[in-house]
Amino acid sequence: MTQQERDELISAIASAVRQRATDTQLTVDEQRWVRMAIKKEAQSIALRQAIIEKSLAGLVWAAIVGIGAMFLQWATAHGYRP
To answer: What is the pTM of this model?
Structure first.
């Protein structure tokens, strides 16, 4: 493929893409639906992130309580009386 053929191919592809992009305009209802779908997806992502954050915080607190309980059992087994 020569440079001239390559340039012609690129210009033909660019004009086809440009023409196709201007041919299909979304209606107002379609635009509203797309906006709502994007908003719903963003909310879904935010919900997943919040669930993950809360789960990790719960696991950390459970670990702290578990370590505290283990220490208390060890202490009572070695003579500490609460």
So the answer is: 0.55
